[in-house]
């Protein structure tokens, strides 16, 4: 019996799902490689440069300009550390949602 963590699609599926959730906070992405122990994707950041995002049992890392980042527990934390515009866009979206909620409370 194969465990979930050793399935060749586990990391690919997890990275794909995490990237889909980013919405407008990244420009684009495409999956590049996957194996039983990791998966990677090329992500175009809002700053218009590309980072390779890697997920493995240790967490998320980025490869940018030949440098591997610290390992992060979440994709949000990693993207926030490599993209100033990522954090700004996430805050903008959150404030818009909070504003919409505040407006609906008044109705």
Automatic annotation (TrEMBL):
Enumerate the InterPro entries for this protein.
Answer: GSKIP_dom (IPR007967), GSKIP_dom_sf (IPR023231)
Q: Name one Pfam family in it.
A: GSKIP_dom
- Gene3D superfamilies this protein is in? Hypothetical protein (hspc210)
Q: Which organism is it from?
A: Dacryopinax primogenitus (strain DJM 731) (Brown rot fungus)
Positions of the GSKIP domain: 25-100
Report what the protein is called.
Answer: GSKIP domain-containing protein
């Amino acid at each position: 019996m194969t465990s979930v963590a050793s399935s060749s699609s586990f990391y690919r599926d997890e990275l794909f799902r995490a990237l889909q959730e980013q919405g407008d906070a990244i420009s684009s992405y495409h999956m590049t490689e996957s194996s039983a122990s990791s998966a990677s994707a090329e992500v175009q950041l809002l700053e218009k440069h590309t980072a390779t995002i890697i997920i493995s049992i240790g967490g998320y890392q980025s490869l940018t300009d030949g440098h591997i980042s610290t390992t992060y527990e979440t994709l949000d934390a990693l993207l926030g550390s490599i993209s100033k515009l990522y954090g700004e866009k996430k805050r903008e979206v959150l404030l818009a949602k909070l504003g919409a909620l505040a407006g609906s409370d008044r109705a």
